Amino acid sequence: HNILWQHLRSSYYFRGLYKTTTFSGVVDKIYFDVEHCEPMVPSSRGPAASPCFCLVYKLFLMRLTDREMETLLTHGDSPFIRAVGLLYLRIATDVADLWRWFEPALHDHESMAMRRSGGGASGAGGGGRGGARSSAGVSTSLGDFAQLLLTTNKYFNTMLPPIPIPVMKRYKKRLSRLDEIFE
Question: Which of 8, 68, 70, 175 could cross-link 64 (Cys pair, CB 3.0–4.6 Å)?
């Protein structure tokens, strides 16, 4: 999305990430800095790209290997590490490969904040570090977050790379079969 791209490029946080050159360094940044998954946050200079999306873009620039991707998606320290991995995949991976990566995450019931804390009635709780966050307001399980990414082309008013309608229908059908199995 063009507006998000402009805010990413002008973000002080993103500029500061140039010092972080290793995959493990980026994972540490996700653990300590990501408290929600909104693309944009307010700042004193107007809207800014969130740390979550700055780190997704940093990973995109690093061109992750399959092994690094597996590390992100199975990391147990914070649901936000896994969420950033899912966002990276949703933006950077061919839609035909998404199901293979997303399917294990659909069973993840760990809670995470979708919106930043202090967002009034629409905000979600934050606070604490890594996985030790409490949630109030708009929170979801990581599995529901993964399902949302598979079934929509819009995320917080930001357009994601489009999933063609026939592929999205196939994903929705698979998701409904999974729901039947769980019930």
Answer: 68
CA end-to-end distance (rounded Å), the chain: 37
Using CA atoms, how far apart are residues 72 and 38, in angstroms rounded to an integer?
A: 19
* Separation between Cα atoms, residue 107 and residue 113, nearest integer Å: 17
The Cα–Cα gap between 167 and 146 comes to 16
Measuring CA to CA, how many Å separate 162 from each of 30, 123, 135, 154, 182?
Answer: 26, 27, 30, 9, 29
Spell out the per-residue pLDDT of the chain, length 183, in tens. 677 888 888 889 999 999 999 999 999 999 999 999 999 988 888 888 999 999 999 999 999 999 999 999 999 999 999 999 999 999 999 998 999 999 999 999 999 998 887 543 333 333 333 433 433 447 899 999 999 999 999 998 889 999 999 999 999 999 999 877 776
